[in-house]
Design goal:
Length: about 180
């Protein structure tokens, strides 16, 4: 329902009104297509809402706070369009059209990696096993559950002598034990 209203509003306010053609005519030389300067494209109302490297060009419902109007009036530099400024009537018409636009909720971009990065880690469910005496920490439960799933049993615990022999062999770099 909301999408339909936005499309109708965009068509009424920008499609039939001479404001978007005025912006394309006055600003389109530098701000159209994929090579739009500053990343700001005047191709559509959605492109203006997205804005460029300095942020959204439009602030619906607040024409005076919109970067587009601030650059047109010279509040922000450089004054746009470069060369010859727009007539005061044209700037007022653009400001009035932006003021008449309904505010739309901001849509945040989803970044799966960033969402994953900020998620609070949770402890995994420790799997149930048949031999609980062999488990000394939760990792052992995962190992034992996998062994039981494959029909295997864990090896007997190594003696102190065997452990020392393994440590000595490892420190010498012996691969074969």
């Amino acid at each position: 329902m909301r999408l339909c209203i936005v499309v109708v509003f965009s068509t009424l306010a920008w499609g039939q009104d001479p404001l978007l053609p005025l912006l394309k005519q006055q600003c389109g030389g530098c701000h159209t297509g994929s090579q739009a300067q500053g990343g700001l494209s005047m191709d559509s109302i959605d492109a203006l809402r997205k804005g460029g490297k300095h942020g959204p060009a439009l602030t619906p419902g607040a024409g005076a706070q919109s970067l587009l109007v601030q650059h047109m009036t010279g509040e922000k530099t450089p004054r746009m369009p470069l060369g010859s400024p727009l007539a005061a009537g044209a700037i007022e018409a653009v400001t009035a059209a932006i003021n008449a636009m309904p505010a739309m909720p901001a849509v945040a971009k989803k970044d799966a990696h960033f969402d994953w990065l900020l998620r609070v880690p949770t402890a995994g469910q420790v799997p149930p096993t048949k031999r609980t005496g062999w488990i000394k920490n939760p990792i052992d439960a995962f190992v034992l559950a996998n062994l039981e799933k494959q029909g295997m049993t864990p090896a007997a615990e190594a003696s102190r002598r065997a452990l020392l022999r393994r440590i000595a062999a490892h420190s010498r770099g012996d691969a074969g034990l």
